[in-house]
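Anyone up for a design puzzle?
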């Protein structure tokens, strides 16, 4: 842990010099949720795992969760559901067949979940079904056109498991296969329009370096991130934050 802290400090210094102002894409996702959540909202968090936001935003997560009519979390991973501290109403289930009546929610959200959908057309239809007329779906997911996502498609899962453990400290049980079947702006638009949604907003956002605990790689990655700050390279940024509205 002491070594990891030192590596973080090195990274923050490098980031401050090469890419000042850079912050996690989780903040962009949180901003959209804050815009959507209000006291009358019935909210469903899909793939809720053990938290809605990242651990360093726990207090903000509690505040957000308390600002709606009610909040339900759904995930298939039972160990994650058991340790979730914010959502009181938690359900074990899959997104392909949601155990809720049609029109039950005004907001559906997904944080780093869409990349794991194996049949996004069917799963988007289910999300559409449980939303009320005019309801919103907000999600945060990797950009399929980014270098990191393209590389991940060619890396065996066991290698990804090792890399994630080194970089983030997550065990195999907390790492799930990604399919990236709804992870480009074009594909998201196609899925939205064919399943009764209107795209309200697509934000292509930057985020912290993946290799932040490996200084030489972090340096190279930060230099690439600096290039991605240019609007002309917006389409290659690593993450997407999308807002869709039910129109049918």
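Challenge accepted. My sequence:
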């Amino acid at each position: 842990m002491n070594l990891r802290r030192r590596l973080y400090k090195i990274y923050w210094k490098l980031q401050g010099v090469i890419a000042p102002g850079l912050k996690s894409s989780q903040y962009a996702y949180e901003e959209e949720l804050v815009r959507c959540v209000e006291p009358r909202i019935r909210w469903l968090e899909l793939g809720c795992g053990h938290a809605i936001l990242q651990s360093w935003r726990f207090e903000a997560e509690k505040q957000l969760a308390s600002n709606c009519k009610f909040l339900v979390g759904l995930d298939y991973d039972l160990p994650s559901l058991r340790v979730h501290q914010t959502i009181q109403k938690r359900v074990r289930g899959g997104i392909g067949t949601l155990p809720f009546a049609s029109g039950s929610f005004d907001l559906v959200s997904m944080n780093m979940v869409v990349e794991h959908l194996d049949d996004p057309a069917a799963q988007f239809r289910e999300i559409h079904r449980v939303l009320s007329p005019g309801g919103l779906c907000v999600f945060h997911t990797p950009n399929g056109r980014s270098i990191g996502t393209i590389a991940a498609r060619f890396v065996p899962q066991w290698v990804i498991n090792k890399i994630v453990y080194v970089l983030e400290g997550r065990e195999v049980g907390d790492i799930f296969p990604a399919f990236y079947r709804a992870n480009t702006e074009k594909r998201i638009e196609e899925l939205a329009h064919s399943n009764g949604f209107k795209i309200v907003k697509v934000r292509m956002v930057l985020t912290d370096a993946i290799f932040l605990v490996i200084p030489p790689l972090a340096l190279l990655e930060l230099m690439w991130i600096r290039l991605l700050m240019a609007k002309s390279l917006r389409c290659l940024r690593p993450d997407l934050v999308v807002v869709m509205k039910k129109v049918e």
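A detail worth pointing out: The mean pLDDT is 93.
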